[in-house]
Specification:
With about 250 residues, the chain is an alpha/beta fold. It has 7 helices and 8 strands.
Length: about 250
């Protein structure tokens, strides 16, 4: 349920996060450091995503949100953007069977209307095909920006008030959470950012209000499944108080 605060997954993965969100940063820099075009790095990044999805399943993660393309990324060179769109198409074509077989539900959030029409259709078909799956939920944030998301949610709430369907005094945090693109998805417990950058880059600003953060030095193509497991294990050792004070033992 959107807006909930939670601990780790049950069973053998006690104190593991249920919802992990990842800012998959550093593909271009990874390639440049190796003397290769930035687009090669994006291709390697797609391969890495496959590994991390498998690791998330093994670690008992229930929701994996990945920041694939931001609203700001539209400002990149047209060729790089076109390569990224081609990679999205290729990923869907190559992976949809495997994702469905493994019981993974796929959902796309963001300003999807800015994407090429054929890619929009592919995304909708993927969501429809995997909608009944009850395993890991893979939430792919494409053409996404949190400020734009919150702005649109505010407009939606304002229209409800104007139409007389919502009392302004009844607006609370749940109202806002249910108006966001992530409605129905629990808030992230852990946000990971690769590449050594120490910023949140307009990603799930409302939803991650109580999330733990992990800033990782490795660029995304070097972020292995083993490293992912280490980060989740470190999360399990954190004392999450949500503003409260623990009683002395």
């Amino acid at each position: 349920m959107s807006g909930t605060r939670n601990g780790g997954a049950a069973g053998g993965h006690e104190r593991r996060p249920k919802h992990v969100a990842i800012i998959m940063d550093g593909n271009g820099r990874w390639a440049e450091r190796k003397g290769m075009p930035r687009t090669v790095g994006h291709g390697r990044g797609v391969e890495r995503l496959r590994d991390i999805i498998g690791a998330a399943l093994n670690e008992g993660v229930e929701v994996l949100s990945v920041f694939a393309f931001s609203t700001e990324n539209w400002q990149r060179p047209k060729y790089e953007v076109s390569v990224l769109m081609a990679l999205f198409r290729r990923y869907i074509v190559r992976e949809v069977d495997e994702l469905d077989t493994r019981g993974i539900k796929v959902r796309f959030i963001g300003d999807i209307g800015r994407l090429p029409k054929d890619l929009q259709r592919m995304m909708k078909l993927t969501e429809k095909r995997t909608a009944a799956n009850d395993g890991l939920t893979l939430q792919v944030c494409v053409s996404y920006g949190s400020r734009a998301e919150i702005t649109e949610a505010t407009r939606r709430i304002a229209r409800e008030v104007t139409a007389g369907r919502l009392d302004p005094e009844a607006i609370d945090e749940t109202t806002i959470s249910n108006s966001l693109m992530t409605a129905g998805i629990q808030d992230p417990d852990l946000v990971i950012r690769t590449s050594g950058e120490l910023r949140v880059s307009n990603f799930l600003l409302w939803q991650a209000a109580y999330a733990e953060y992990a800033f990782i030095d490795e660029c995304w193509p070097d972020f292995t499944a083993e490293r992912f497991a280490e980060v989740l294990e470190a999360y399990g050792r954190r004392d999450r108080r949500f503003g409260a004070v623990r009683a002395a033992r």
